[in-house]
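Progress against Task 2.4 (sequence-to-structure conversion) is shown through the following example record, which the project officer requested during the mid-term review.
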Amino acid sequence: MDILNIDYEKFKLNNGMEVILYRNTDLPIIAGNIWYRVGSANERKGKTGIAHLFEHMMFQGSLNVPKEMHFKYIQEAGGSLNGSTSFDRTNYYEKVPSNFLNLILWLESDRMANFLSALTQEKLDNQIGVVKNERLERYDNQPYGLAWELIVSNLFPKNHPYSWPTIGFLPDITAYTLKDVTNFFNTYYSPSNASYVLAGDFETERAKDSIGKYFEDIKFNGPIKQLDVKQPALGKNTLITHKDNVQLERIYLAWHSDNAYGKDDASLDIVSDLLSGSKSSRLYKNLVFEKEIAQDVTAYQFSGRFGGFFAIISTAKPGISLDTLKDEIFKEIEKLKTDGAEEKELLKSKNGMKSNFIYSMQNLDFIADQINSYNFFLGEPNSFNFDLNRFEEINNEKIKQVIENYLSKPFVELHIIPHKEG
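Structure tokens generated for the chain above:
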């Protein structure tokens, strides 16, 4: 298939910052999307959570942009903005009417160049408090909230960069100092560690001139040590039982899987969809509708730069044991491995994946972020057709093969069970 193909221009500024331009004049809007090649994988034990904390700090103002004004300027222009942190990268993005090009370039460049000039202990203390509350609300005090922390810390070796949660551990979050923040910024928030995508309705030469004007003179902070991570593997099954403030028991099963855009990544996406992607999917139909032993069931494939995992999660109905759920889950996995999917079933799954992807292409934000993702993981910003064609090529042979290669290997099994009174 060759239905998605974009024209783009990619170049580097003298300070090493990558710039990718994608011109689309369908609507009078532009999207700016910057990826810094730093995430929680660049942290270490005892110093977790700083990448995510830093995402918060970058909205606290810079030399020429007072606190809260980044949001205000964009919103007053009729635009939207946000940021996010993952294991592998941190990104910041804005979408505005196209006549506000210089505004988003000025805002993004000022915090890249002048963040430290406006850094104060008060701002740091404030954001440590915000992230601390986020950690407590979404993890520690949330039903089932510690599940993924327990999964990744047991699935990955203790020194693997995916073995702690992106938000970090509470003692680490509350211990960060101005020196820590300064060192982190100077190490990772260098133009040479960033790629900036501008997508939408702009004049190319004017955009190049403006990007050069705002970013070219920002200092390059020197080379960054690259991570050297071995592919993880479990030697045996691991069972964890965790008591929580929940009403219903829940089982989590997690296996090591393929890296982002690896040869088996898309096939595992299809397997997850066949198992739980709709109400007619195998696990949902069996556990929730026919046997009525589960409240819900979900399967999905996560893939990153240094590893991936395939997970299945199911909440038991009252009186149903997690071992019963587990047995039924493995029966469906084994059936899919032995018999493969029906032709109609597989076609529906592949078409669903492709249609969701194509539908997302209507969103300029999605396109800009995908360009940065492809550039980061594949080195080719125009990988839309490659990405889509990965699903086109999947057949039953590949489905059976990835189940054998990944879901027949050792796994982590987590049981979340209610606290017992007395």
